[in-house]
């Protein structure tokens, strides 16, 4: 039986594919290397207001609260984990590890480098405005472009291309761990996660573009691009979770259902904007078989969708996306 791109067909295919197994590993953003972490104190030397805003969020608070949460303890017990702060399963998404005196230790919750990447290799490039005495205000446009390019090449997830940030969000908010969901009882992703709504509420820290004057909301043009990139990235990471599924259970079925919703949403966007990168993403998944044993093919499709999202984020003109305004969340819907 052949499978089309639907959650129902996916479930049927699982029922008839008892011996099939998905790919053992799924590609995506590189895991944070504790040896590359410099810590939020270093970031705060230039981005003090951003760090202060971060300290008001659950991303920061999780360092002190998660290990005391009864639900978190229940999940850890089901998985046989003795310490929430001392296992890769929980640390991967909820904490930041750093190498100190030759030893790895948890130093923060979800921190600056959880989103922007371990900074050891790119921090100097990011902070170089063009020589002695030159500041961000006097940096030339040419040097700024070079600085951003160099930092990204060294591993920085620079919000200049919102996809680089979005993939970090979805790498955790889709909960890419089958055992954690099926055996541990963890939610199969934040089903209501949407990039604009969740990034423009309490976690917003947009001080750079206003010269440190205010925590501003991006322009409507940027929000349009962010919204589309979020849908494309959500589709990509839902596919990655489907590819990782090895059994007919909550993790795989929920991931397939979510991928189907994102495909439908992206199709609705495309009808309004007719964008070539969105067309590429939709063509990639048009006849994709979401079934056990098809992991490598699904991962390859996810990679193509991700490439399309990155290209869209780099080149999209938000002015031309005005027709999707009715689809964007309103400020009162932003995550508080």
What's this model, at a glance?
The chain is mainly alpha-helical and 336 residues long.
Query: What is the structural class?
Result: mainly alpha
Number of helices: 16
Portion of residues in helices? Answer: 40-55%
Sequence of strands across the biggest β-sheet: 1-2
Tell me about the biggest sheet?
2 strands, antiparallel
The total strand number stands at: 2
Enumerate the spans where pLDDT stays under 50 for 5 or more consecutive residues.
Answer: 1-27
Q: What is the CA-based Rg, rounded?
A: 20 Å
* Principal-axes shape call: globular
Summed over residues and divided by their number, the pLDDT gives a mean of: 91
Helix and strand pattern: HHHHHHEEHHHHHHHHHH
Strand content: under 5%
Question: Can you tag this structure with a few keywords?
Answer:
mainly alpha; 3% strand; globular
Give a structural overview.
There is one protein chain. With 336 residues, this protein is mainly alpha-helical. Helices cover 51% and strands 3% of the residues. The protein is built from 16 helices and two strands. A hairpin with a 2-residue loop joins strand 1 and strand 2. It starts with 6 loop residues before the first helix and ends in a 21-residue tail after the last helix.
Summarize the helices and strands and which ones pair or pack.
Elements: H1 7-15, H2 40-44, H3 48-54, H4 58-65, H5 70-78, H6 88-94, E1 96-100, E2 103-108, H7 112-116, H8 123-127, H9 141-153, H10 162-173, H11 178-182, H12 195-199, H13 220-244, H14 250-273, H15 276-285, H16 295-315
Antiparallel strand pairs: 1-2
